[in-house]
Structure formats: C-alpha cells, structure tokens
User: Fold this.
Amino acid sequence: MSEEPLLSLPLRALETLSRPTFQMPSGGWDTHVHVFGPPDRYAHVDKPHYTLPDGTLGQYRSLMRQVGIEKFVLVQPSYYGTDNSCLLDTLIDVGDLARGVVMIEPEISEAELDRFHRCGVRAVRLDLFKRARESLAAIKSYITEMAARVGPRGWHLQFYAPGYVVRDLIQFFRKLQIDFVIDHMGYMLEEDGLRTEDFAALLDLLGSGRCYLKLSGAYRIAKHRGYEIVEPIAKAIVERAPDRAVWGSDWPHISYSDRDTGELVNLLERWAPSESARRKILVDNPRRLFGVP
Assistant:
C-alpha cells in the first residue's frame, strides 16, 4: 500500500451546489464539520493521510447560507491529531454558533479539559480505525478510560469506527453509561463482511437510551454506487428512533471534495419524509446531545 497521502482537491464551486428542496427548520445543525487553517499556524501530524484540504471557516460560513444551516459541530480531523488548536480557535471565533468534538490523549490534564469545555467542546472523538488491529479487550479498556475522563463533564463519545468493530462492540455498548454517537450510520459495509443481522443488532442498540446514530457519510457507504444504496439504511434508523438520529455533512468531504453538499442535505427529504422527524434530527436531537439550551 502506498504511503503517499491522498491529494486534497479544491472544493466544488458554491454556485453549483443544489438548493434545499424542503423548508429547513429554524436553528438547524450540521453535526459533522472539519475546518482547516493556515499551515504556518497549525501544524499537521507526521505523515498525514491526506494533504491540507480546502476547507476554511469562511468557506463553510458561505455554505451555511447556501443550504440553510444555522449551527454546526466542529469535529477534530486526523490531520491535526490531538492538537486541537485550530478547532478551539474556531470555536472562540464563532461563539454560540458551534460546539466541538476533540481528540485527546488519555493523560490530558483536568485543567485542559476544563479549558476545552469553556471553549464549547462537548465530546471526544475516538478513532477506532487506528485501533482496529488491537484486541477487543484493549479497545474496550480504551473506551472505558475515555468515558471516565469526560463523562463527569456531561460530554459524550463519538465513534469513528469500521463496521466490523462496531458489530463486535454492540453488547459492550449496551452497558456503556455515557451518551455516544456512531458516525456514518455504523459504517457497516457489505464488502467488509457485514450482514443484515449485524445492522439489525445496531438498530436494537438505539433502544439502549445512550446511543445516537449519525446520518452522515452517504458517499463513503455507497462508494461508487448511487445514494439509493444508502436509503434503506437511513430510513430504517429514522423509522426506528427519530429521537436518536443526528445529521452531518462531513464537510469538506475529504478526498471527495467534488461532492454536492446541497444534495446531501436533500437526501434528508427521502430519509425522513416527516417534517417533525427532520426537526428532531436537525434541531432537537443535536441541542440535547450537545447541551444547548
């Protein structure tokens, strides 16, 4: 496998994006956004998986006006590792328009976590792709440790994980005493050996009262197929637990920079035909999850 990073291409031109085909609710949230800053100010990790993406705060603010999003959640990208400087500076800049999801080392100090909280951070991102080759016991221990660090602050956990790891953790997740979000609808790809019964078990997890599934990454699930491949998955989540689903664009669509963010917004009209369900997904659920009054 080549160690050369993926080449980040320019974003699709704003004027070419689709307009919303439904009335966006007031106060709607995009719960999965990455923002990048100047390389002379924010250093990337050694050997990042991709080159510096085209994705500044200014570009995203323009996108918000285009598609009708009013609030957003900044998610720490792997490009910066556990140096959350860019994310924190952006949170300070935008104030109550956003909340943050950081990546941290287990030994981070309480004072640093307190500082993050004051900036608007309300969750920690656990990248289980990086730990996929570890034993299940080691992964569970890591999750338990992180939950103990951030749970007392009212934060939640956000899992970026391959579907086969999600599958293997479902019984463990049932006992987790902290709210948590699983990105990209569980990322249960058929090509990774996931089956219908695995997704059914994931849907059952929504009844635990602590699990949320993020309606995001449709193009990552579909890959080179059409979005119709993803529709039954998204609809099943919404029908099963509209109170436990949130939506995220995954902007700036790293390595998929030509994607039409407006089209991703409009998928919600098919996934959640009910206006009341869309309001839960876009407004009520994110506010509850991120502790917004």
